[in-house]
Amino acid sequence: MPNFAIGAVLDTARERHGLKSDYRLALFLGVTDGSIRNFRHGRSLPDERICGLLAEAAGLDPLILAAQVQAQRSKSTEARSLWEAVAERLSMGAHGLAAAIFSVLIATSFVATDARAQSAGDGARPGFLNDAVYTSYLLQDTSE
Fold first, then answer.
1. Nearest to residue 107, comparing CAs of 144, 62, 61, 66?
2. 31 HSE (CA, 13 A, CB side)
3. Coil/strand/helix, residue 42
4. Spatial contact of 124 and 118, defined as CB atoms under 8 Å apart
5. How many of the other CB atoms lie within 10 Å of CB of 16?
6. Which of these, 49, 57, 101, 108, could form a disulfide with 13 (CB 3.0-4.6 Å)?
7. Of the listed ranges 35-49, 76-90, 101-115, the one predicted with least confidence
8. Residue ranges of the domains in the chain?
């Protein structure tokens, strides 16, 4: 997956809508211009709601953008790799949809497990050891 840059997404959104400044982009998106400055200069990353607004404004898939942002936000290499894989699979389109949904489920449970382990302090255990993850799947037969 190519390196993700939120600045490029901001630029694309501005160009698509003929906005001449980040201030105008902020007004267009309904966010503060300080938020846009913070995104552009790497001081913060957009949350999921703003990812959706930015993706729509830039003509991008909001799920892919949200996964890329989450990968950038991840603190561990393992979590980052999982979110990058989710973004990659989502970008494959409809054929990769089942794999992408599975990846999101796995990544979400991994991040939740990682957060629990970090909050446990010194007694934290790595990865999935001693943790149970239960997932239900609804499968539909599309062959006829």
1. 66
2. 20
3. coil
4. yes
5. 12
6. 57
7. 101-115
8. 1-73, 76-144
pLDDT of residue 54: 95
Could you write out the DSSP letters of every residue in 52-84?
HHHHHHHT--HHHHHHHHHHHH-SSHHHHHHHH
The Cα 120–Cα 27 span in angstroms is 42
Enter the CATH code of domain 1-73. Answer: 1.10.260.40
Question: Residue 143 and residue 132: Cα distance in Å, rounded?
Answer: 33
pLDDT in tens, 52-103: 999 999 999 999 999 999 999 999 999 999 999 998 888 886 455 656 666 6
**CA angle, 6 then 102 then 97, to 5°:** 70
Q: What is the pLDDT of residue 128?
A: 46
DSSP at 36: H
